[in-house]
């Protein structure tokens, strides 16, 4: 299961990074690496991320002379893999995975599985400063928002090649991506944070979502919505609830927000992609089981068996 969140302000100049990453990711799949290694492990997941990053940078290298702004295209990446009763979650950027589990008194409790790689987080700023002690501009407060080099909020991505390798430096005349000085070392990384967790009978479902959802819903609010509503269309319900909150903050009606044109919506709310995975513990005990039911709301809204049926041994 995966959520990608590309930076929309770059795609208007070049190409939809998610399409390219999905193409590369299919060629360099976790499944394929698992077959080579005979298992899933943190190293297998890490290798898949590294191969996807290198594949995208190879694409940039081949095309940036024709489309130089492809070097400014990047995406957050959140991936979850269930293998033999263990959940692996790997994250770049500020998308988030949250598990809903039954706590005391049989009440649903939210447990975050990831941490946000965003300069708004003090620990992320400290991490950047410690890696770049000689760069006073590594994190800059700009219009009330912390940004890396005054440009980008997330510290880990696929792509954004101009912030990783000098060979992809952009023309300084492109003010939006102008660096105050030439790149001395990478300021972003594609090294994912990986979280491994055994699944227990109390674990009921996992929410994978881009930061647009979490801007308007707390972890606990999200799991309570999933727990208290039917499975069908649950991802869409989460998106709709977040958008209603966004409309309320703007002191406008939800129906009016829906009428806002796509090119203008970013001023009202961020893009939102949600995947909800329900955990069937009976299936986890079977070998050669299909993947559990999931609900996705992003480019499409669908409920049913996962299309990612390539993992043929879940036990």
From TrEMBL:
It is an enzyme of class 3 (hydrolase). GO terms for molecular function: metal ion binding; protein serine/threonine phosphatase activity. Its EC number is 3.1.3.16. Pfam families: PP2C. GO terms for biological process: regulation of intracellular signal transduction. SUPFAM superfamilies: PP2C-like. Residues 1-279 form the PPM-type phosphatase domain. InterPro entries: PP2C, PPM-type-like_dom_sf, PPM-type_phosphatase-like_dom. Its cofactor is Mg(2+); Mn(2+). It catalyses: O-phospho-L-seryl-[protein] + H2O = L-seryl-[protein] + phosphate; O-phospho-L-threonyl-[protein] + H2O = L-threonyl-[protein] + phosphate. The keyword Nucleotide-binding does not apply. It comes from the Eukaryota. PROSITE patterns: PPM_2. The keyword Hydrolase applies. Keywords: Hydrolase, Magnesium, Manganese, Metal-binding, Protein phosphatase. Belongs to the PP2C family. This is protein-serine/threonine phosphatase.
């Amino acid at each position: 299961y995966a959520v990608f969140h590309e930076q929309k302000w770059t795609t208007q100049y070049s190409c939809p990074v998610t399409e390219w990453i999905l193409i590369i990711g299919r060629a360099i799949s976790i499944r394929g690496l698992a077959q080579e290694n005979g298992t899933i492990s943190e190293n297998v997941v890490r290798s898949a991320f590294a191969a996807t990053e290198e594949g995208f940078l190879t694409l940039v290298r081949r095309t940036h002379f024709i489309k130089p702004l492809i070097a400014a295209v990047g995406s957050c990446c959140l991936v979850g893999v269930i293998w033999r009763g263990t959940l692996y979650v790997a994250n770049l950027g500020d998308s988030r995975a949250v598990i809903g589990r039954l706590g005391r008194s049989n009440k649903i409790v939210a447990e975050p599985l990831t941490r946000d790689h965003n300069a708004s987080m003090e620990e992320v700023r400290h991490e950047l400063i410690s890696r770049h002690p000689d760069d006073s501009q590594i994190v800059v407060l700009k219009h009330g928002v912390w940004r890396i080099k005054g440009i980008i909020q997330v510290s880990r991505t696929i792509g954004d090649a101009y912030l990783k390798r000098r060979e992809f430096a952009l023309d300084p005349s492109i003010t939006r991506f102008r660096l105050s000085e030439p790149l001395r070392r990478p300021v972003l990384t594609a090294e994912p944070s990986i979280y491994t967790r055994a699944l227990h009978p109390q674990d009921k479902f996992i929410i994978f979502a881009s930061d647009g959802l979490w801007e308007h819903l707390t972890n606990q609010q999200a799991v309570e919505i999933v727990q208290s509503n039917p499975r069908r269309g649950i991802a869409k319900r989460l998106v709709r609830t977040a958008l209603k909150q966004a409309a309320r903050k703007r002191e406008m009606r939800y129906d009016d927000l829906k009428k806002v044109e796509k090119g203008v919506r970013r001023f009202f709310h961020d893009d939102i992609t949600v995947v909800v995975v329900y955990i069937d513990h009976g299936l986890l005990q079977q070998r050669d089981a299909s993947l559990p039911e999931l609900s996705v709301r992003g480019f499409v809204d669908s409920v049913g068996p996962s299309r990612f049926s390539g993992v043929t041994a879940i036990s």
